[in-house]
Amino acid sequence: IIAQRRFTSDNSRRVLFDMKDLTSSISALKPAGVVITHNHPSGNPTPSESDIATTRRIFALLRFTGVRLFDHIIVSDDSAYSFFYEGMLEKIEKSVQKAFYETTDL
């Protein structure tokens, strides 16, 4: 582990995440990869549509900078959801690649 960073400002209903903060840290630290974690106080670690969309944006940003997203883990009181172990990162990778190739003239 090179560093741990907190990138959020939260309220009782949702978490606000600023991609500029992540980009700045990636530029400064130059990691080979990152693991992102957050909690679901509700007790259900299943990712929301917003969690999936944010993970997709982070994956694309990191891919563009040459950094690998190793996992996004959502924790609750007594369980967790791993995007890697559930196969969601692979699906996100395919969707990002598809979107890239559909918008790129080769």
Protein described:
With 106 residues, the protein is an alpha+beta fold. Helices cover 42% and strands 23% of the residues. The protein is built from three helices and five strands, in the order ββαβαββα. It has a three-stranded mixed beta sheet with strand order 3-4-5, covered by helices on one side. The chain has a two-stranded antiparallel sheet with strand order 1-2. Strand 1 and strand 2 form a beta hairpin. The longest helix is centred in the middle third of the chain and has 17 residues. The relative contact order is 0.16.
Question: Can you lay out the helices and strands and say which pair or pack?
Answer:
Layout: E1 8-10, E2 15-17, H1 19-29, E3 33-39, H2 49-65, E4 68-75, E5 80-82, H3 88-103
Parallel strand pairs: 3-4
Antiparallel strand pairs: 1-2, 4-5
Helix pairs in contact: 2-3
Beta fraction: 15-25%
Number of beta strands: 5
Helix content: 40-55%
Described by the principal axes of the CA atoms, the overall outline is globular
Largest sheet: 3 strands, mixed
Number of helices: 3
User: Spatial order of the strands in the main sheet?
Assistant: 3-4-5
The overall average pLDDT, rounded, is: 84
Order of helices and strands: EEHEHEEH
What is the distance, rounded to the nearest whole angstrom, between the alpha carbons of the first and last residues?
37 Å
